[in-house]
Amino acid sequence: MCFGRIYICVIAYRLIYLFEEIYMALPEFHAAGAIDSGSKDVPYCRKQKSLGLLCSNFLSLYNRDGIETIGLDDAASRLGVERRRIYDIVNVLESVGILARKAKNRYTWKGYGAIPKTLEDLKKEGLKENGCAVETSCSEKTSDDEDDEMCSDLNNSSQTEKSDSNSVPKCSLSNRSGENRKEKSLGLLTRNFVKLFLCTDMDMISLDDAAKLLLGDGKRNSVTTRTKVRRLYDIANVLSSMNFIEKTHHPLTRKPAFRWLGLNGKPDKENVDSLVLSESKKRVFGTDLTNATIKRFKVDGDASHFLKPHIPIQIKQENLDNDVGRTKTGGKNYQFGPFAPANVHKVGTSQDEKEKQVIDWESLASTYRPQYHNQALKDMFSHYVEAWKSWYSEVAGKNHIQLLS
DNA sequence: CCTTCCCGCCAGACA
DNA sequence: TGTCTGGCGGGAAGG
């Protein structure tokens, strides 16, 4: 009988979890701000809204089998952010080859396998452009091509294909508005930023220096540099969330700088072909797949039930087919960026441990109290716990066991 | 106080 | 004219 009760509790427990899964999966809850019902108590936390975390969530959401195209609206609603933020993410991801623009509102998922080739292409371009920049002021053939591209009618290229407008800013000559806008785009800035690492000896660079380098000589004033640095922060956050780069400090000046990790710090052919949600693509209890809508001006002192919407990510040990970008460290696994989930399993978790986790699932109800994002669910779970305690002390008459607390 | 970077306004591009 | 796209800088959080 006792076991029967326990079984019922486990079932109820699972139902609550299932309910939460469904609840969180409904886009309209995010879009309509219904999730905010609980967020009024939640203090604003900048890190929970960061582009890096959003990028991690984005990749976790779409990096799986069967994903071919991605709708921006879908991404925005599922991640619980405005579309504007999705544009920032996809522009950077597109620059490193993970995504490709397919149509309005629609991107093709290329995956991590496309990264090495993209980086190699960027490197080639960068080296070519360096020659251009050193010897002439954009009068070489390649520069002409790029300049033509930059100057070409935007009808042809800007909305459907922007892959070739990669020249570094110093190579551009005209100031026409469309070109100017393109020249300042986040995607182009990302590519040029990556080229700085790929095509120079610099192992480490501050964003301030990067901004100055990426700005044309005639444009380096404090205002434009500041603007550029802002964008570079955005880019750096996304790139470091994928472990392309890592934040560090310059050994001499102690100023913040970023170090290139490249494919050493991210999944490549030696390591993985995808990042997947842990627990067999399931979220762990109480985690949130969204950057839920908590405005920064909403501040509340009580953070006791605030949950980190980290996405646990682990590695699928399959190889890629690409030849470039092999890591120097061989079978090193993916490492998390600065937004790594606290509860994530370390890479290299043994098969035994994984199996044990599955088995532990069975005893979860008696050993683990989930942290529900949603207050109503949390209350409901508390209710079950209290009911269980009450029943147990009453029927079993045992008070020497402390349950679930 | 300085660094970091989220947020959303608004203008350009496009259908 | 409406929608999509994304540059931009204010200003608040974080250190």
Secondary structure topology:
Layout: H1 2-25, H2 27-31, H3 36-39, H4 51-62, E1 69-71, H5 72-79, H6 83-95, E2 99-103, E3 106-109, H7 115-135, H8 141-151, H9 154-157, H10 177-183, H11 186-199, E4 204-205, H12 207-214, H13 222-241, E5 245-249, E6 256-260, E7 275-277, H14 278-281, E8 313-315, H15 351-367, H16 375-396
Antiparallel strand pairs: 1-3, 2-3, 4-6, 5-6, 7-8
The structure holds a DNA duplex (15 and 15 nucleotides).
Structure description:
- This protein is mainly alpha-helical.
- The two termini are 23 Å apart.
- The strands form three sheets. It has a three-stranded antiparallel sheet.
- The protein has helices spanning 2-25, 27-31, 36-39, 51-62, 72-79, 83-95, 115-135, 141-151, 154-157, 177-183, 186-199, 207-214, 222-241, 278-281, 351-367, 375-396, and strands spanning 69-71, 99-103, 106-109, 204-205, 245-249, 256-260, 275-277, 313-315.
- Helix 5 crosses helix 6 (83-95), helix 6 (83-95) packs parallel to helix 11 (186-199) and helix 12 packs across helix 13 (222-241).
- It contains 16 helices and eight strands.
- The structure holds a DNA duplex (15 and 15 nucleotides).
